[in-house]
Recover the amino acids of this structure.
């Protein structure tokens, strides 16, 4: 595990702030329901994980969601959406981080991002079916969805949405990574000393 010094804590704070701002710049995609919003706030968390280790990425995900919850609140009164966003971010950045540690090339990063996207999309589908959708219906006092309706929503909207979101984040991240790879590797080496 990489050591956490003052520089790491300050960087995590800055990356969390950037992630929070990116989270506010969310937008819907026309084929999906309006409550499924695309944002690129997982990119700073991934940068933090690559430089300072997986704990830094998790902390950036945590802090951006806490900031958003306290600043904007939640329709349910309980941070169900924020917990879902936190889980999605973790499920995207951790597999990407660990695979990239093994495959330290640009092609390796591309493969890591694709596998991170697939794992996030599949895992979030399962979590939505069993936990997140029932939590929303419970806290919003809405009629419960039947198993068939929930399965249909997950397969028709949530799974493809998370695949599209992951691929868009991967494409944007790769554009940044091509320019920042040398700097990221240098910072990683400095923090491992």
């Amino acid at each position: 595990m990489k050591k956490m010094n003052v520089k790491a804590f300050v960087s995590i704070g800055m990356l969390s702030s950037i992630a929070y701002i990116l989270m506010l710049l969310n937008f819907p995609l026309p084929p999906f329901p309006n409550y499924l919003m695309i944002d690129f706030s997982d990119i700073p968390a991934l940068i933090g994980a690559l430089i300072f280790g997986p704990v830094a990425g998790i902390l950036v995900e945590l802090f951006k969601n806490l900031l958003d919850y306290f600043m904007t609140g939640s329709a349910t009164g309980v941070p169900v959406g924020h917990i879902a966003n936190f889980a999605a971010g973790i499920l995207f950045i951790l597999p990407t981080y660990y695979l990239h540690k093994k495959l330290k090339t640009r092609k390796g990063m591309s493969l890591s991002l694709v596998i991170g996207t697939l794992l996030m999309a599949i895992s979030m589908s399962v979590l939505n079916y069993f936990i997140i959708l029932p939590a929303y219906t419970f806290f919003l006092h809405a009629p419960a969805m039947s198993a068939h309706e929930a399965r249909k929503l997950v397969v028709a909207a949530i799974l493809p949405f998370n695949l599209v979101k992951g691929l868009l984040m991967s494409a944007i991240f790769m554009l940044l990574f091509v320019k920042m790879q040398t700097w990221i590797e240098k910072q990683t080496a400095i923090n491992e000393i």
